[in-house]
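Limitations

Structures in this collection are predictions, not experimental determinations, and the ligand pose is part of the prediction. Treat each record accordingly. The example that follows, with SN-glycerol-3-phosphate as the small molecule, is included so readers can see exactly what is and is not provided: the inputs are given verbatim, and the output is the predicted complex.
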Amino acid sequence: MSGSGIFAEIIDGDVFNYYADGKWNKSSSGKFVPIINPTTRKIHFKVQACTQEEVNKAIESAKIAQKLWAKTPLWKRAELLHKAAAILKEHKAPIAECLVKEIAKPAKDAVTEVVRSGDLVSYCAEEGVRILGEGKFLVSDSFPGNERTKYCLTSKIPLGVVLAIPPFNYPVNLAVSKIGPAIIAGNSIVLKPPTQGAVAALHMVHCFHLAGFPKGLISCVTGKGSEIGDFLTMHPGVNCISFTGGDTGIAISKKSAMVPLQMELGGKDACIVLEDADLDLVAANIVKGGFSYSGQRCTAVKVALVMESVAETLVKKIKDKVAKLTVGPPEDDCDITPVITESSANFIEGLVMDAKKKGATFCQEYRREGNLIWPLLLDNVRSDMRISWEEPFGPVLPVIRINSVEEGIRHCNASNFGLQGCVFTKDINKAMLISDAMETGTVQINSAPARGPDHFPFQGLKDSGIGSQGITNSINMMTKIKTTVINLPTPSYTMG
Ligand code: G3P
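Predicted complex:
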């Protein structure tokens, strides 16, 4: 059960505490933030509404803890991360239960998220030991006009305090994808979890607490975005921001100080289907890619661009598979569960109604109960419909029929987003050329877009983000190069 057993100390009455200075605290605000269960649409959990003063203190102790942590041997940092990963995996059940209640993640996927997170943390430990244990050695006489009198040694040093802001769809996994790299690289972390997902995140943070990290090194502040959001992202004590979420990221990047930013801000991931594609494979990937977690993934297939000659057959195959998706509560492990909030459901409905008005073909009847929206495939979508360009973050997938590959590429590249895309064809030469032409951070050939495995590079172009993620890239991003130059005296004699 959430908030019980080893997690008993993270809750006070019926409000979950925030974590700072190595302990669980009640906010002096005396206020809480309610967390609405998307399924029942009732308050399920409450978390502390931290004050700006409490944020200041968390950042201050993060600063102090980081100085010592940077001097802690790399193997010891790795050892603690492995310990946290093991505790996290051991306690996957209560953490997954929070994900089911807070974000309506289907029960099995919720467990998968926690296990994947443990694996990610362990991989960070191993990768960090490998890549941070190495530096570079340069000599001066490779640059014109220089003698061999300067030896340059480089190593990677931490940035300081990293602010981590993960989104609601992976409040545990996309939190540890920031915590793991930051900590192994010698940084400290201040985590601001999403409101929905905050309790799962607090449970995850407790696993790090139990692993025995020094006090202040990791903190987790909860609260209203209006009170502590800008305050955190513009805080002079923050040395790096790693954010995953929506277009709030664009605002953050405009307001933040001169600190390294890592941003992943969504996508309109296109799936281009050629005439020679294996249509059963395409249908399976479009349904999994478009509808898993009810389409609430940045990497979900968000528009299928299908060659006219195979569109009829493919749409029929997708339709048959969509009919088999189960719809209902996350506790029953249904494929399609309620979307995160009522306003998200309203937004999705707005896109559907716009497509209806403009003449899209509905492959199923549109159905909604509360936040639960039945999976919907829209065929014959045209580019004057909002759904062609906007990200529904819901179980609605548009199919645009195309007459040439170029038309598909043009549509993909006309988007403001550029996260991932995919292409289905048996012709590897064509696939490579299309991949080159698509303006997205990643192109998957013959599979749906996906972030994982978590050590692969993951990045968006255009409005989809700044910087590259994936374990190795995140570790590197959360470090700076430090150079020491040994200046030798000019030899007064000739050797040899
Ligand atoms: O932000 C990335 C997330 O939305 C998608 O991750 O693992 O489902 O591809 P994943």
